[in-house]
From TrEMBL:
All residue ranges annotated as the Alginate lyase domain in the record: 88-379
Name of the protein: Chondroitin AC/alginate lyase
UniProt signal peptide: 1-41
SUPFAM superfamilies membership: Chondroitin AC/alginate lyase
Originating species: Roridomyces roridus
GO molecular function terms noted in the UniProt entry: lyase activity
Residue intervals passing through the bilayer: 476-495
GO terms for cellular component: periplasmic space
Superkingdom classification of source: Eukaryota
Pfam families in alphabetical order: Alginate_lyase
UniProt KW keywords: Lyase, Membrane, Signal, Transmembrane, Transmembrane helix
Glycoprotein among keywords: no
Length: 498
């Protein structure tokens, strides 16, 4: 799974029965009038394939005034995620083959049952089918029963919640906030609390099913790619000096990550992922380098990044900017975007670990760069491969490239403005906070909620721009306006009753 504009929530609060409430017409109209402007100011929640936000930039909390829409979206997304958390591997309804509910588990997404040779195939219950029927691979076709076990989606939700809550915390002049407290709560539940913690391995990730046993695959390493987002959040709280992120919690998290790093560097499936030359190899570096940063092994993260850009990256981009291994898949538009997102994340991780790195300008053996890959993809039509449902996957990648390489011709901002015309509202997207397409450019993308906002140079992902406003934006989100709105609704209701 990569970006989804309606990320599935698999552990929602239990439903409750309420007495139906009939709203007076005036109250209904007021409710609609209050909700309309709030909906226009933020984008629909998006689970990005992967990303790493420079913790130094985020912790400084000095955001340009034209980032108000992005900040509103981040707060809204953080609060949305908070309503569903916390998450834990112990919450899933099916145990891993080990019998230990602390073991992470997911099923291979493209594996489908073939029960043609199974006895009593018409009366097999799911548990029997998983072990009796042979499973066959159908590239790009996701078996919907994968969501029976929600560990993979839960981790996506966890990593997003940590990223957005940590960023929302930086919008306030406080050492403690509800957002930093939520980061701690979510991390303790998934990683640290003895009753709910995950064992530091992926032995049963993207597990194959069938009569020959149920074992995890190297492809399952992808499931925890969100560690890049988690590293962004943890390092931001560290640098911000959050009083909620204590030395004790930090020490426990470092200890857990060190155990998991050992598994990633020694397990056969992890080694196979590390040796992959396509997006699996790219994303493996995302994850391990991020973990190295969490455990304060900056040198290790640097070594990994350099090895990637001096290794498999060299063969990933052709002279025309295409990515041959991703182009060969059944969903090439998606996989090209997915690998580019991984490349961008690796470049950001390496640049953070080693600011002297020139990885953004490292050439493939064909003389291409990450910019070449996005330029090629911008000319590719997702409809040509029936992938219009993932059109939006390209937008953060375009913005990241524009922010890093500059946009003197305006082609990147034009591409994003075209997305605005289709209803995407890029300037209100979360990534606009760190993926500003015109860093160093001449024009801007203006947020719908930033009336009169600056449109000149703004702080890029590597840190605040010298030309950006220096005031620290203190944003609480939608809480206070919402309270006033609810109060007004109550007053109108009382008047109606009278």
């Amino acid at each position: 799974m990569t970006r989804s504009h309606a990320a599935t929530r698999l552990r929602e609060p239990p439903s409750r029965t309420h007495t139906p409430l009939v709203l007076p017409l005036s109250l209904l109209l007021l409710t609609l009038s209050l909700c309309a402007p709030m909906a226009a100011a933020t984008n629909v929640f998006t689970c990005y394939a992967n990303d790493f936000v420079d913790p130094t930039y985020a912790a400084a909390g000095k955001y340009a005034s034209n980032l108000a829409g992005a900040q509103d979206t981040i707060v809204a997304w953080a609060e949305e995620m908070n309503s569903y958390g916390p998450w834990s591997v112990t919450f899933k309804p099916v145990l891993a083959p080990s019998g230990n509910n602390h073991d992470y588990m997911s099923w291979a997404p493209y594996q489908w049952p073939d029960c043609s040779h199974a006895g009593n195939k018409t009366v097999l219950i799911p548990q029997q089918m998983w072990k009796t029927c042979a499973y066959v691979f159908r590239d790009g076709q996701v078996n919907p029963d994968r969501t029976t076990i929600n560990d993979f989606q839960s981790f996506f939700n966890l990593s997003d919640a940590i990223l957005y809550n940590s960023l929302a915390h930086t919008f306030q002049n406080q050492s403690s906030s509800v957002y930093s407290q939520n980061v701690v709560r979510f991390i303790k539940t998934w990683f640290l609390d003895s009753n709910t913690s995950m064992n530091p391995n992926l032995n049963y990730a993207q597990m194959n099913r069938g009569p020959n046993g149920q074992t995890g695959e190297y492809t399952g390493i992808l499931d925890l790619r969100g560690f890049a987002k988690i590293a962004s959040g943890i390092l931001t709280l560290r640098k911000r000096g959050s009083t909620d992120w204590t030395q004790d919690i930090d020490g426990q998290m470092v200890a857990w990550c060190k155990q998991y790093i050992n598994w990633l560097q020694t397990a056969p499936t992890a080694k196979q992922a590390a040796g992959s030359t396509n997006n699996h190899g790219t994303i493996f570096v995302n994850q391990l380098a991020a973990l190295k940063l969490i455990v304060n092994d900056t040198a290790g993260a640097t070594t990994l990044g350099r090895a990637y850009f001096g290794g498999i990256y060299k063969n990933q981009i052709a002279a025309n900017g295409d990515q041959p291994e991703e182009a060969a898949r059944t969903r090439p538009y998606h996989y090209r975007n997915f690998n580019i997102a991984g490349m961008i994340t690796n470049a950001r991780l390496l640049t953070y670990a080693d600011p002297t790195s020139n990885c953004w300008h490292t050439l493939s053996h064909s003389g291409s760069t990450i910019q070449s890959a996005i330029d090629f993809l911008m000319k590719t039509k997702p409809g040509a491969t029936s992938e219009t449902n993932v059109t939006a996957e390209i937008y953060p990648n375009v913005a990241a490239v524009g922010a890093q390489y500059g946009d003197p011709s305006g082609k990147y901002v034009s591409f994003l403005k075209a997305a605005d015309a289709s209803g995407f509202a890029y300037a209100d997207d979360a990534t606009f906070l760190w993926d500003q397409p015109l860093a160093g450019g001449s024009a801007g993308v203006t947020s719908a909620s930033a009336a009169g906002g600056a449109t000149g140079s703004a702080p890029g992902p590597a840190g605040p721009s010298a030309n950006a406003p220096g005031n620290e934006a203190v944003r609480i989100g939608g809480g206070v306006p919402l309270l006033y709105g609810l109060f007004a609704m109550l007053v109108v209701w009382i008047v109606d009753l009278l």
